[in-house]
Amino acid sequence: MKKQPRTSAKLRPGLASEPAFDHIMLKRCAHLRKQQLRYQESNSEDAVHKSRVALRRLTTALDAFRPLLRKSQLKAWRSEAKALFRALGEVRDADVYLAALPDEERSKKLVAATAWLREKTWQDLKRKDAAGFAARLEKAVRDKAMLRKSRDGRLLRGRAVEQLAGEAMDGIWADLAGHGADLAAMSATERHGFRKDMKAFRYLADDFSPLWPKEGRAEAEDRIRALQEDLGTLNDMANAARLGQPVTGGEEEEAILGRAGGVWNELSGLRPWWRQDRPAAAPAEEAETA
């Protein structure tokens, strides 16, 4: 059995941001390496999906530690990860679209086109050594090649990780609030952006979870999962419509939007558990209806 990469100091309150970066990024690299290996071996729908999740988790963690990192390094690694993510995204969208169609609407031509795209992307990524991305990034983390060397950079590297984590959580929470309170008033593109920010919020909450009491975040977790599920369904419906084949049957979009909007209103009114010293946030204002 292949030895797993050794991670650094255990994440805990009071740990400096630099070893926290090592710990989280090595964990993310190991996760991505595992999923990339599965994809390289199987080229399956599940492997495509989980590779994309691993890449999104990794870039979310990189963004959280942005204050510690050299701009050129962050830009280069992030760009490579995003290129992989987009390539796999084309395959994922085709898979989801095909799966949503009734059997009688899955033409041989469409099935063949989806298979062709899957094979082409797989071969392209193998040729570009996409499977080696995680190992290269892991080496950069261990070699400290990504970290700022200036005086300010060194000070930030020594700062307690819960300060950095709290600022990162505040940032993505502000991004979510900036989308507005009324999901039904958003365009499909705007809801997609909201959905991506919600994923980033959840991933940060997972990565930094040892820093805060579980009681503080437990109330939010079920709501986040429920909201993500509904947002995913809405996104699949929007993609199918964009491709010219709206999904029929199942729950109506209006009902899903209503439920998701209610959950978002509840979630936005909860006390931010990563800032327990702050007062509870005011609930998002409901949009006026005619």
UniProtKB/TrEMBL annotation:
Coiled coil: none annotated. The lineage of its organism: Bacteria, Pseudomonadati, Pseudomonadota, Alphaproteobacteria, Rhodobacterales. This is CHAD domain-containing protein. SMART domains: CHAD (SM00880). InterPro entries: CHAD_dom (IPR007899), CHAD_dom_sf (IPR038186). It holds the Pfam family CHAD. PANTHER family: CHAD DOMAIN-CONTAINING PROTEIN (PTHR39339:SF1), SLR1444 PROTEIN (PTHR39339). Residues 14-290 form the CHAD domain.
